[in-house]
Amino acid sequence: SPDGAPALDDAALTLRRVFGYDTFREGQREIIDHVVAGGDALVLMPTGGGKSLCYQIPALVRSGTGIVVSPLIALMQDQVDAMRALGVRANFLNSTQGVDERRTVETLFAAGELDLLYLAPERLALESTMRLIDRAEVSLFAIDEAHCVSQWGHDFRPDYLTLSALHERWPKIPRVALTATATPATREEIVTRLGLGEARQFVASFDRPNIDYRIEPKKEPKRQLLKLLRGEHAGDAGVVYCLSRGSVEKIAAFLVENGIHALPYHAGLDARVRAEHQARFLREDGVVMVATIAFGMGIDKPDVRFVAHMDLPKSVEGYYQETGRAGRDGLPATAWLAYGLQDVVQLRKLIDTSEGDDAHRRNLAAHLSSMLMLCETVECRRVGLLTYFGQESSPCGNCDTCRFPPESWDATVAAQKVLSTVFRLQRERRQKFGAGQIIDILLGRHTPKVEQFNHASLTVFGVGTELGESEWRAVVRQLLALGLLAVEGDYGTLVLTAASADVLGQRREVRMRRDKPRPAAPAASAPA
Ligand code: ADP
Ligand code: ZN
């Protein structure tokens, strides 16, 4: 080149001219080169890592149309608009379109006039779509959100199973599968189901060093949330996740009453209201979105300063994905979760009543128990998270357990007291009760319900006065997390598990985390 700088190749030119970026991010260059050369790839990269360019650039550099399979139908229009704004000839095919609109897109595609075609998986499964693809020149298949093919994962879409046909029908067209979910089990399933055994795997680090992970015992959740927002995130944009639509409405109203610019978002709201709230969250400064997990997939807002969970996520994958929406600009951000006994009871109930077979329910239960382990760990949260995703790391120094190491204590005797109360009720009286009644018995309280069932005559009545009510709740919560106790039924009744016998029979010791409110240390005092 005239000024002596090395000439840029096609990929680097496209990065600069089309996307306006000067340098590739970690990992992008190798992936792009591999796919441009016609290789298959499996890309595991955290949310915000820059996966899209890994197929967009090869699609532009190679000749023909790049087909992007995505389950996010609601976002296709936005994705296409964003590409068109950059001058890329993009379009999509999905069920939201009318016949005429679809015909137009198909004609453009067959004529070679598209750089990118976004396709819903159920459209790809149609023989008519396959014949259309036969007639066109295709540069690559990108399979976005590839973990949707995994039945073990948290986001299974049956339509994704048909994607195994891509390779059989068009073996010469390179495929790049991308996901932000990278547990070893999910990865293996993606490889098997999509026939990616020969594909090169690109695994980025899942560490998000700028996120400060915190999990607190849930005491007065609304006040705890308000304290976080006022104390550390005044005026910041953030997301508050709630399990139900009802609690979304309540929390949003509560925040507004307290002078915080909050908006609700859940699937029960009118589509227009949802779109408006989402647009305001993206456009305006300092909006707090109070939402169910329906909100967030594919939303690219770099300056989300906090993600707060008012309820326990159902899996570590979900937790990681949701918290990953914070701090995509690389600046410090907070991932905060308030978690209590009631969460465990509620999620267990959801699992017990969920549709699907036993294997599915066992799957959900395994996901929940991994999440509980992350909550109750006395070790670094980040190490716990990364270990879950099969990546090694060392204690981070800025999560809550690193900064304020929790004390653990020998809870064997306390555990025995709870379990033997449950045991006595179950065996001697054929009764089952929830945590509240068990704790009343241990504390020796003469409540109306204790009188009604004559529980004061149990030998365990009043044997637990060494701990207070909230400490007993923490014991029960951790027994559930450890699988030493289980809940069943609509009323959250407690029952023993196979493992309970080891504790009752003095064959197993139980160590527990001591709940302590986190000292109100300003974020600035954190080690850099
Ligand atoms: P992912 O799909 O992995 O969640 P995206 O592809 O949406 O991430 O990228 C996240 C953000 O990073 C987007 O705003 C994108 O434009 C930006 N980005 C991606 N690659 C680069 C790059 N090489 N230089 C600068 N910004 C980039
Ligand atoms: Zn840590």
UniProtKB/TrEMBL annotation:
Name the EC number(s).
5.6.2.4
Helicase ATP-binding domain: from which residue to which, for each copy? 32-200
Primary enzyme class: isomerase
Its required cofactor(s), as named, are:
Mg(2+); Zn(2+)
Listed A to Z, the keywords are:
ATP-binding, DNA damage, DNA recombination, DNA repair, DNA-binding, Helicase, Hydrolase, Isomerase, Metal-binding, Nucleotide-binding, Zinc
User: Gene Ontology terms, cellular component aspect?
Assistant: bacterial nucleoid; cytoplasm; replisome
Q: Which domain of life is it from?
A: Bacteria
> What residues does the Helicase C-terminal domain cover?
221-372
Which Gene Ontology terms describe the biological processes this protein takes part in?
DNA recombination; DNA repair; DNA replication; SOS response
- Molecular function per GO: 3'-5' DNA helicase activity; ATP binding; DNA binding; four-way junction helicase activity; hydrolase activity; metal ion binding
Reaction(s) catalysed by this chain, per the record, are:
Couples ATP hydrolysis with the unwinding of duplex DNA by translocating in the 3'-5' direction
Family label: Belongs to the helicase family. RecQ subfamily.
Report the protein name in the record: DNA helicase RecQ
Species classification: Bacteria, Bacillati, Actinomycetota, Actinomycetes, Streptosporangiales
